[in-house]
Amino acid sequence: MLNIEIDEHSGFCFGVTTAIKKAEEELQKGETLYCLGDIVHNRIECDRLEKLGLITINHDEFAKLHNAKVLFRAHGEPPATYEIAKRNNLEIIDATCPVVLKLQQRIKKKWQETNGNDSQIIIYGQAGHAEVLGLVGQTHGAATVIESSSQIDQIAKDKNTYIYSQTTKSLEGYRHVVQEIKEHVDKERECESFNTVCGQVANRLNGIGEFAKSHELIFFVCGKKSSNGRILFDECKKMNPNSYQIEGPEDLDLSLTTGVQSIGICGATSTPKWLMENCKTTIINYNNK
Ligand code: SF4
Fold it and tell me: CATH class for domain 3-11+200-287?
């Protein structure tokens, strides 16, 4: 008898759930709603919302837009985006996740306190990622972004140093980078780190490893651009080499399920539950043929 389990801890985090709920509420009013960037790193969920009327635009299109309603997604935006909105008479539906908002405020405050004071702010994150752009914007572009300890030479040794993490990075990776930076910066300088990895991501890491171990075959459902998806899938793969990343049911290699007794389906904080359910149904239908 084939057992297929969907990981109960996988699926949207509260930041993404809130952003999608806000979009759905606005769309129900029947007015045109734009979203600056993909509302979630999941093409299939974006397509669903676009069918309801959501119009996804990029930053160039946003800058040319006037007198319209625009949703800012959970990743947050730098101050410059709010200035454009004001200039162009845009109504903002701000779905910035409260965790990201708090991090933006902390970075801004630290930058205001230390700017011009032989100090530097370091952000451990993915360069160019929307959340990271929003964080760097709090320092007027002055913060240094590093993705790994191989970029440590970009950090000045002779400055007081304050280190933050993008919310969706791995805690293990962050701790490693902090350790390396502390060894790199001159001892007489201050070097402080702040653990700003989101609990929604950090807490899922152990759980997903255990889940992956408990099944013969794992399908990890996630958009290719998801930052936490990469981390969670790596953990699945580490704990169960028979793990496969897919974007949706159409990517399933169903031949892998033949003769298997136990299949686990899990995903990232940007993976809708309904999509994992669809994958489960597709596997059941194939095996009942
Ligand atoms: S992962 Fe955390 S910080 Fe990012 S949107 Fe979800 S709840 Fe907010």
Answer: alpha beta
**So what's the pLDDT on residue 203?**
85
Q: How far is the CA of 99 from the centre of ligand 1 (A)?
A: 6
Longest dimension (CA), the chain: 70
| From the candidate CATH numbers 3.40.1010.20, 3.30.1330.60, 3.40.50.720, 3.40.50.12780, the one assigned to the domain spanning 99-193 | 3.40.1010.20
Determine the pLDDT at residue 264. Answer: 98
Q: Which two tokens stand for residue 217?
A: 């075959």
d(CA 250, CA 19): 26
Residues having CB closer than 6 A to ligand 1 are 13-16, 74, 97, 99-100, 167-168, 198, 200-201, 269
Where in the chain does DSSP place strands (E)?
A: 3-6, 33-36, 54-57, 69-72, 91-94, 119-124, 144-146, 160-165, 191-193, 217-221, 243-246, 262-267
pLDDT at position 200: 84
Domain 14-97, what fold? Rossmann fold (3.40.50)
Equal CATH topology for 3-11+200-287 and 99-193: yes
- Residue 227 has a pLDDT of 81
What pLDDT is stored for residue 78 in this prediction? 98
Q: Give pLDDT < 70 ranges for the chain.
A: none
**Distance between CA atoms of 260 and 6, rounded to whole angstroms?**
16
pTM, two decimals, is: 0.89
10-48: pLDDT as tens digits: 999 999 999 999 999 999 999 899 999 999 988 889 999
Cβ neighbors of 165 (< 8 A, separation 6 or more) are: 123, 124, 125, 174, 194, 195, 196, 197
Selected catalytic residue, list 26, 45, 77, 131? 131
> Which residue ranges make up each domain of the chain?
3-11+200-287, 14-97, 99-193
